[in-house]
Amino acid sequence: MTRSLHRSLHSLVLASLLALPLSLTAQDSNTIHFDAATKVFRIDAAGTTYAFGVNNVDELQPLFWGRSIAATDSLPAAHTLPEVASFDGPGTVTQGEYKGWGGQLYLEPALKVTFPDGNRDLVLHYVSHHIEGDTLTIVTKDIERDLFVELRYTVDPATGILGRSAIITNKATAPVMIEQAAAATWNLPRGTNYTLNYLTGRWAGEDQLQQQLIRPGETVLQSTRGSTGHQNNPWFAIERGPSTDEDTGDVWFGALAWSGSWRITVEQDQLQQVRVTGGFNPFDFSYKLAPSQSLETPVFYGGYSDHGLGGASRLLHRFELTKILPQSPNPRPVLYNSWEATTFHVDEAGQEALAEKAASIGIERFVMDDGWFGQRKDDHAGLGDWYVNPQKFPHGLKPLIDKVHSLGMDFGLWVEPEMVNPDSDLYRKHPDWVLNFTGRPRTQERNQLVLNLARPDVRDYVFHFLDDLLAHNDIAFLKWDYNRNWTEPGWPAVAPDEQKKVYVAYTRNLYSILHDLRAKYPKLEIESCSGGGGRVDLGIMHYTDEVWPSDNTDPFDRLSIQDGFTYAYTPGVMMAWVTDSPGWANNRTTSVTYRFLSSMQGSLGVGANLNKWTPEDFATAKDLIAAYKGIRETVQHGSLYRLVSPRNGSETSVTESVSLDKKQAALFTFLHSSTMNYPYPRVFLRGLNPNTSYRVTSISGKLATDTPTTATGSYWMSHGLDVELKGDFQAAAFRFDAQ
Ligand code: DGJ
User: Fold this and answer.
1) Cα separation, 346 vs 343, whole angstroms
2) What gap in Å lies between CA 90 and CA 95, rounded to an integer?
3) What residues line ligand 1, using a CB cutoff of 6 Å?
4) Dihedral sign, CA of 637, 639, 643, 648?
5) In angstroms, what is the span from residue 526 Cα to ligand 1's centroid?
6) Do the Cβ atoms of 665 and 658 come closer than 8 Å?
């Protein structure tokens, strides 16, 4: 008898004997087990164990999360902690899987509600559970009221990453107001020696990795802006001990799949217990649940690695590529984008001229950015009017699209569907369609207002104009932009106590439009852009194929933006354009090669004004694009090792990508400025097969003359290699192929 079958039978027998209110395992699971004797749930996958139990007061209490425990080791039953002081009773010091605010809880609740009679006390008790394949569903209920919370746990057997969410259902006869709803609380083993990693930023400066010791109290990561935001990204990673090496040590990490306002709190309590709670942002939030209605939270994914932050991000990348992104990961085509070359001044002849030049260097997709629609001359007008501008494109988009196809490329188009300029036919006709409070100012940002996608008529309008555009034009790719945050987020068309639902309804309608478009146009690919990286999260990535990490295309700044990005997101979706030099961000001059090598660490694009390029620029670009195509599968879908970080003023940075079969590696090395004639620090590869021979080839740049052309993986990893880099803003790249 298999161990899992044995456990299931054991559970069945015990449950019937003890007549516990347990609905038992519907289908045997290799990953999820329930021990009816101890009332312990265990989820084991990919070297990770996650365990919790139903405790002596019928609450769900975490037991363990970390490196896998042997199946033969049984975990003791969950028990509430004793009162520590009259100020710190069991209700607050005992950790919970998903706690309602009520009883004695003084720490961050997962759920907070107000009942119509004024009662705000919510204590959730276990009712039943159900295991099906890799999903565990647990029903909990308030001790007195008919408010049910179903907790879902779905584990990915390949990475051990758990997806957790909650469905809150009102089975009473009166409405309930939800004021705070998290997807999950993640509890870490008790300790004080933790370092929190998180990403902060701003427009043109996204994804800067922050590291700080977790101290008593609470750290809040959030967006209150209606969308994911540039300022914080909904991702965290907690290392045990100080950060020493990228690829060693225990790391617990998580990412929230939500593109609306969100919040993640990281809390160390008075017993030095650390927990992370994340979900809808409770700021300005409420959600009225009528009888028999439900609210489903976003999914909060969490995982564990004993291979440091590097191991954590490799697990997350694999998970995103296989479980989050909408289709099996095709390599991203090398694209050209018109924005930095022509801004709003697009027209048929100008775009066709750029397309010819783009095709000549091996570009596979030509994307026309902003400016093609309505009365769009600059950012003051046109958003909302999605007809082709007849002055710029007198015969519609077809001649340009045909030309692009004749050059062997597919065609992509920029849209910003959720926005409207007050100077537009749409706004003149439907001024009530934007987020607003009646009689109050409507603050413009970039001369635009936000359409209230929560409204069914707005949702239909957006879907139908996109459907029409796609039905009448052969468009392979949409760059979906979103260039401001919310202000005055009112929804006057619904009752005052329903208006704050906008935070949920808007984002759900956004997802449903993306879903319906993809269903109708299965070959369509979409990029999520929000003035750069303002909407990058696992929620939007479920419906999009790539993301635009930053409007800042300075190749040096991009090294740290891309470095931060890859802690949370796969380089496979990280669009990176080569643009002109000196660039607008820093007026810095860099070589074409440096710019290409910076961009080749992700999904390569070109956004330069090709009309200004020299023949030498074209020749270099053509060579490097060809070289990129030879390594892109490895870069986009392989395992990333951040060998040297560009953070904290580092003079050097190095990344290495290794293909899944370990037959190829791509190495990118960068030098900010050499000083005192020092040589470039030796580079030690990682992740190769030690006994396999790899031949090294230069993509650009030189190795020390005594470097062997072929050596084993163990040589490249242990002995390392010396790269010849001197000067300012220099870069070199090499590929290693198994022989
Ligand atoms: C912001 C985007 O991030 C840019 O790449 C470009 O598409 C502009 N919007 C166009 O308005």
Assistant:
1) 7
2) 9
3) 339, 369-370, 414, 481, 483, 529, 531-532, 548, 551
4) positive
5) 14
6) yes
How far is the centre of ligand 1, averaged over its atoms, from the C-alpha of 530 (Å)?
8
Q: Where does a domain end: 300, 324, 348?
A: 324
One domain for residues 402 and 270: no
Q: Which atom of ligand 1 lies closest to the CA of 379?
A: 11
Pairing status of strand 60-67 against strand 111-114: unpaired
Do 320 and 256 fall into the same domain? yes
Active site residue 551: yes
Hey, which residues does 303 pair with through a beta bridge?
Answer: 253
Closest Cα partner for 333 from 561, 638, 633? 633
Amino acid at 128: S
**pTM score, whole prediction:** 0.95
In a domain, 235, yes or no: yes
Instruction: Encode pLDDT of 512-527 as tens digits.
Output: 999 999 999 999 999 9
- The four Cα atoms 167, 171, 176, 178 give a dihedral, to 10 degrees, of -10
Q: Is residue 88 part of a domain?
A: yes
The per-residue pLDDT of the chain, averaged, comes to 95
For range 624-643, the mean pLDDT: 98
Q: Which residue's CA lies nearest to atom 9 of ligand 1?
A: 531
DSSP letter for 324, please: I
Predicted confidence at residue 242, as pLDDT, reads 75
Task: Tell which atom from ligand 1 comes closest to the C-alpha of 529.
Answer: 3
Q: What percent of the chain has pLDDT over 90?
A: 95
Q: Tokens 């090598």 label which residue?
A: 597
- Report d(CA 254, CA 65) in Å as an integer: 13
Q: How confident is the model at residue 18 (pLDDT cuts 50, 70, 90)?
A: very low
pLDDT one-digit tens code per residue, 372-405: 999 999 999 999 999 999 999 999 999 999 999 9
Angle 310-312-313 from CA coordinates, rounded to 5°: 70
The single residue of 370, 551, 580, 617 carrying the catalytic annotation is: 551
Query: Are 401 and 294 in the same domain?
Result: no
Please count the structural domains in the chain: 3
Q: Measured in angstroms, how far is the CA atom of residue 147 from the centroid of ligand 1?
A: 45
The H-assigned helical ranges of 407-495 are 425-429, 456-472
Is 728 in the active site?
Answer: no
Determine the structural domain holding residue 130 and report its residue range. Answer: 3-324
pLDDT tens, position by position, 178-227: 999 999 999 999 999 999 999 999 999 999 999 999 999 999 999 999 99
Nearest residue (CA) to ligand 1, atom 5: 551
Q: Which ligand 1 atom minimizes the distance to the CA of 414?
A: 7
Q: Ligand 1 center to residue 383 CA distance, Å?
A: 13
Going by C-alpha positions, the residue among 354, 365, 380 that lies closest to residue 332 is 365
Model pLDDT for residues 331-366, shown as the tens digit of each residue: 999 999 999 999 999 999 999 999 999 999 999 999
C-alpha to C-alpha distance for 184 and 355, rounded to whole angstroms: 48
Residue 314: its H or E element: helix 308-319
Q: Specify the range with the lowest mean pLDDT, choosing from 208-217, 285-294, 323-332, 666-675.
A: 323-332
What count of Cα atoms within 13 Å lies in the side-chain half-sphere of residue 388?
Answer: 20
What's the CA gap between 151 and 140, in Å, rounded?
Answer: 8
Q: Which of 473, 498, 529 is a domain's end point?
A: 529
Q: Give pLDDT tens digits for 133-190.
A: 999 999 999 999 999 999 999 999 999 999 999 999 999 999 999 999 999 999 999 9
Residue 654 CA to residue 684 CA, distance in Å, equals 10
CATH code for the domain in which residue 451 is found: 3.20.20.70
